[in-house]
Amino acid sequence: MLDQRRFVLRHCEACRFSFVENHRTDYRNLYDQDYYTGKGADPLVHYIEEMGHPDRTVRYYEWQGIRTVQRHFFPEGCRWLDFGCGPGGLVKHASASGMDVTGFEEGWAAEYGRQHGIRIIDAEALEEHRGWYDFVTAIEVLEHIPEPLGALRKIRRSMRPGAVLFLTTGNARPWRRALLKWSYTQCPDVHVAFYEPETMEKCLLASGFTPGYLHSHPAYNDIIKYKILKNVGIQHRHRIIDALPWKLITRMVDGRYKVSAMPYGIAV
Q1: How many separate helices (H) and strands (E) can be counted in the chain?
Q2: Contact 9, 21 (CB under 8 A)
Q3: Please, what's the b/e burial string for 141-159 (b: 16 or more CB within 10 A of its CB; e: otherwise)?
Q4: Which of 49, 65, 69, 129 has its CA 20 to 30 A from that of 93?
Q5: How many beta carbons lie within 10 A of that of residue 4, not counting itself?
Q6: So what's the architecture of 9-56+73-214+262-267 in CATH?
């Protein structure tokens, strides 16, 4: 932890939502250059290197999985918003393949991304794009937000009816009896909200979405592959890594940690 305060974790038995009660609010200090280069609250993130070398780092697998999800819903293309895009690595990756992708971010990461030619809009511009987007991604974003309903409603306003929100965040359900041992809760400076699938379903319903599920969809093979490699400290791709039996590995990991059990949202 960067902050030496004693963080307080609360839990609601009714909705299964857990959250850091006394979360930090000095966001510009938290999400600065150090954070995005792996020198801040979460040493496992390397956003700047991933953005500069998209085909070399293991983040490539996650991006490929997300592209598979996008093609599943919109095989002929779509207007895509990456909400909480950081410096814009996914935006850059998807744009390179011809997709119409815009990022939303604020602070240091947004400024860095724009300086490097990434299309990133701010809160004012997002509000101007009401009902605009067909597909929105929020990749490992909601665990950073202390008031998820406000963020989800902001996302919903940007989407047309029938549009799809695909999100990823850790599933707290397998850790229900040992929440403080979960790696997600070990970064309380930045990870402040923790969801079970039922929790996220309630959040989506309260924000103008109908929940849907992609249980064990092939896209999760690449998404989970990235998560495994990240958590064991592997940053770069290698042909030996690709030679491993990933379908079997990711199926076993998903069976244990229920990554694909988290719902997506359909805008109503």
Answers
A1: 12, 10
A2: yes
A3: bbbbbeebeebbeebbbbb
A4: 129
A5: 5
A6: 3-Layer(aba) Sandwich (3.40)
The encoded tokens of residue 156 equal 């919903």
Residue-wise DSSP of 31-96? SSHHHHTT-SS-TT--HHHHHH-TTTBTHHHHHHHHHHHHHHH-TT--EEEEET-TTTHHHHHHHH
Instruction: Annotate 247-260 with b (16+ C-beta within 10 A) or e (fewer).
Output: eeebeebbeebbbb
Q: What percent of the chain has pLDDT over 70?
A: 99
Percent of the chain with pLDDT over 90: 95
* Coil vs helix vs strand at 165: strand
Q: Name the residue ranges covered by the structural domains of the chain.
A: 9-56+73-214+262-267
Closest CA to 64 of 27, 90, 33, 40: 90
**Residue range 57-75, pLDDT digits in tens:** 999 999 999 999 999 999 9
> Distance between CA atoms of 232 and 230, rounded to whole angstroms?
6
